[in-house]
Amino acid sequence: MVNLLSHQTNSTAQVGNDPFRVRYICCVTQSTFKIVAAILAFCACTAFLGFDAFEVDGSSKPGFPKSLRADSLGLNLNINEHFMASGNCDGCHGYDETGHASVDANGQDISPVTTWRATMMANSGRDPFFRAKMSHEAQVNPSHATQLQDKCTSCHAPLGRYSYHMDGAGHYTLADLENDPFGQDGVSCMGCHKQLPDHSGSNHSGELYYDTLMREYGPYDKPWQAPMQDFVLVTPFKGEHVTRSGFCAGCHTLITESVDLHGQSTGTSFVEQATYHEWLNSVYNDEQNGITCQGCHVPRVTEPVVVSANYLSLSPRTPYGKHELVGGNTFMLKLMKANREALDIRANEAHFDSTIERTMRNLQQHSVQMQLQSTSLTADTAFFDLQLKNLTGHKFPSGYPSRRAFVEFVVVNTSGDTVFHSGVMNADQSIQGEDATYEPHYNIINSQSQAQIYEMVMGDVNLDPTTVLERAYVPLKDNRLVPRGFSTSHAVYDTTLIAGLALSDPDFNFDGFEGSGTDQVHYHVPVSGISDTLNVYAKLYYLAAPKKWMQEMFDHSTSQIDAFKQMFLQADHSPVLVASDSIIGLGITSSILNTQSKRISVYPNPSSGFVNFTLPNGAQPATVRIYSANGKVMSETVSNGKNVLLPASSGTYYIQVTTNSGTFVSKVVRLGR
């Protein structure tokens, strides 16, 4: 009925010659006899309550009635001496058909299992890109294959990998994962909630410390222990560490040991990912006024929520953390949604659609803010400043080094003809004019062959770009937008380096002070001989898995690479629009006194709000536009009246009134409130 692995005594061990020096805890203090006794009691209890046995993968297991446990997609219900898979939590912490538990004030299901099951974390063990990349690394360096796979699975398949280690079974490999329901459960409930507070925030690279008793930790005081003890053999405790950013450190900073092109150790390490350390080097790392990882990725609702189904007497708890766990990887979410049957993913289309929508909202509303300004105009050049501000608590992009963002900057005339275009993406996702190796960081862009691409480029021992993770020796470029408060003098800067030309850019992370979390790109656009009005558009796009980054892996062949390649080639490779800004009608302010625009009088001027304008006899206003001093359209109205409300912010504005007898323009000053 239940898969019980062999009992181990208390010990702490290190894998022999593992170049990653993986430490783990393989201590188990419960005896097999006690576990068996508890499970027999559990079975008796379920029989007494009328809970039936059911079939999962051909074996009969005790559990909750079908309406309360995993749905028809069959969440994993396996149990071993160390962990229980996610299906065992679904009965109380999944969708409540009665609408009593895990719902918000509007009755919306916000249960942990429902919001988790279509996330990247839920499917980290089934992620086809992860499996393909792990097989690629093993094929490139076969002598390190078992150590590499053991390292990767420590975060992508923690329940399976740590069960192996706790039982002294040695390295956990891709072959083990593909046949292990615990590994395939991804980062499920116990993958996080069974972690001890010890070392929280100081561990990294998959070094996780699990409670050796059947205990879990949550955010609430005095949890009611009896139901979990009786039905899933687990005792819940309050653990302050689950609400702190250090809880995420073990898997969200990854430092690997570098090897040369022959697979020999260089004796150095490389920081492949450092999302947690990036947060440490930010203004958000503040116990009083900061924002934790959970503050964004497990967003809280303040209204009281009943945290468990099946118990009407439970008092609601607050605040309640929604296990949305989204980042920015809509590409892989869509790919897995399209291939969920082939990947045996236990989430349906609706689950994925909801997760994709939340991920898109996170990308477009909480990632980067852009502001475009026209600074000056000469006879031959138009000058623009584009400022990008990182709104996240880490670099953008962050995490896996394939991710990149790029700026598309376009200037067109009123006829729609292109005057200037930087950052054009080709069909193969390369950027027009992009250097064959990698595009440098820019402070000034004055050619259409130049483009601003925010990315981390790994270099091998020969300082050539590489996408083989174990060969990464130095960062050749890292101009990813840093978070607000980021400092090159911070204690963790050595793990969060700025690399390449961004390091000497006076406008990178500097806007009067270090730590602005911004970058300002200066565009110098040739306009000699152009007398037309210009429209200017700036857009920031994001790519989680660019085709260019995949090529080195796709040159190899394994069953995992071949399977992922087929899915990848059939996927939608459109970049995600993250932020944008524009200036429409540039040239109005610079030609305010030319003969094509007649002057009109406005009053009062200066004004604290509304202004009136006087037109020649017979002239009837059709369109009224208000421009900022740098040529940006602030408002446009169709009116038969002769007054208009200025924008709320104080400053200089231009009013353009188009009438049946011509266009009239006047300058006006808006006073502060």
Describe the 3D structure:
With 673 residues, the protein is α+β, with helices and mostly antiparallel strands. The protein folds into three domains: 12-327 and 329-361, no CATH class; 367-586, no CATH class; 598-670, Macroglobulin (MG2) domain (Immunoglobulin-like), CATH 2.60.40. It contains 17 helices and 29 strands. Strands 13, 14, 16, 17, 20 and 21 form a six-stranded antiparallel β-sheet that branches. Strands 11, 12, 15, 18 and 19 form a five-stranded mixed β-sheet that branches. Strand 23 (601-603) and strand 24 (610-614) form a beta hairpin. Helix 4 crosses helix 17 and helix 5 crosses helix 6 (158-166). The longest helix has 18 residues, at 349-366. It is globular, with a radius of gyration of 29 Å. Residues 1-70 and 588-596 have low confidence and may be disordered.
Give the end-to-end Cα distance, rounded to a whole number of Å: 73 Å
Derived from helix and strand composition plus strand pairing, the structural class reads alpha+beta
β-strand amount: 25-35%
Described by strand count, sense and barrel closure, the largest sheet is:
6 strands, antiparallel
Number of helices: 17
How many β-strand stretches? Answer: 29
Q: Round the mean pLDDT to the nearest integer and report it.
A: 87
Rg over CA atoms? 29 Å
Instruction: Estimate percent helicity.
Output: 10-25%
Q: Are there runs of 5+ residues with pLDDT below 50, and where?
A: 1-70, 588-596
Total domain units: 3
Shape: globular
List keywords for this structure.
five-stranded mixed beta sheet; 25% strand; alpha+beta; disordered N terminus; Immunoglobulin-like; 673 residues; 22% helix
